[in-house]
Design a protein that fits this description.
Helix content: 25-40%
Largest sheet: 7 strands, mixed
CATH class: Alpha Beta
Order of helices and strands: HHEHEHEEHEHHEE
CATH architecture: 3-Layer(aba) Sandwich
Structural class: alpha/beta
Number of helices: 7
CATH topology: Rossmann fold
Strand order of the largest sheet: 3-2-1-4-5-7-6
Strand content: 25-35%
């Protein structure tokens, strides 16, 4: 059974590595618009970027004085992230780690910002990840999640086409439990440039704070 699980994880990692193994960055190297807006009033401290990908958000935070730990499942993505951090002169401010978030255990109460951007897992796998992320937020710290909302499946552009990996704000709030005070929870619209013009994606955004 343990071997079957390992084989499955290796296959997943190979698939993500294949997606990231392109010459250019899969996503833009600019920070997510909602991260920029939602952290504008935060004092830099320690940040944890879960599912960091090629680290566009981690690097942006580091450029603004945050000490960032960036975690991703794909070693290819992390290698590209290291190159981006070096190119932007913040390699000393971002600690990178390859890890599976389904088993990764961040230190409780350590980070002034815990970030989860577009991590899409089946809900049964995601709930414990969310609970551990909530526990990692330091007193006075912020949790920020942005991901494709379930409404995007029929009314928005792009994103996963599997209902079981899409979000609703209510489900996220429930999974976070009572440890954090919810500041925002709902849907936001994100314009996407396509060959056919601007399309709109519908995202779930949850921001919470530990008292």
């Amino acid at each position: 059974m343990e071997r079957d699980k390992s084989d499955s994880e290796n296959a997943e990692r190979r698939e993500w590595n294949r997606r990231y193994a392109v010459k250019d960055f899969v996503w833009t190297v600019e920070a997510n618009r909602f991260l920029v807006a939602e952290t504008a009033d935060l004092r830099p401290g320690r940040a944890l970027d879960l599912a960091a990908g090629e680290a566009r958000n981690a690097v942006w935070l580091a450029e603004r004085g945050w000490a960032v730990r960036a975690i991703d499942f794909s070693d290819v993505a992390i290698e590209k992230a290291r190159r981006l951090a070096a190119a932007r002169n913040v390699a000393d401010k971002v600690a990178f780690e390859v890890a599976d978030l389904r088993s990764y255990e961040p230190e409780a109460g350590r980070f002034e910002l815990v970030l989860m951007m577009y991590l899409h897992l089946p809900w049964a796998d995601l709930v414990p990840v969310l609970a551990r992320a909530a526990r990692a937020v330091a007193p006075g710290g912020t949790f920020l999640l942005v991901a494709h909302d379930s409404a995007n499946l029929k009314r928005g552009h792009g994103g996963p086409q599997r209902p079981d990996v899409l979000y609703t704000a209510d489900l996220v709030v429930e999974a976070l439990g009572r440890e954090l005070a919810i500041e925002k929870a709902g849907t936001v619209e994100r314009p996407v440039e396509t060959d056919d013009g601007i399309r709109v994606a519908i995202d779930c955004l949850v921001r919470a704070r530990r008292p």
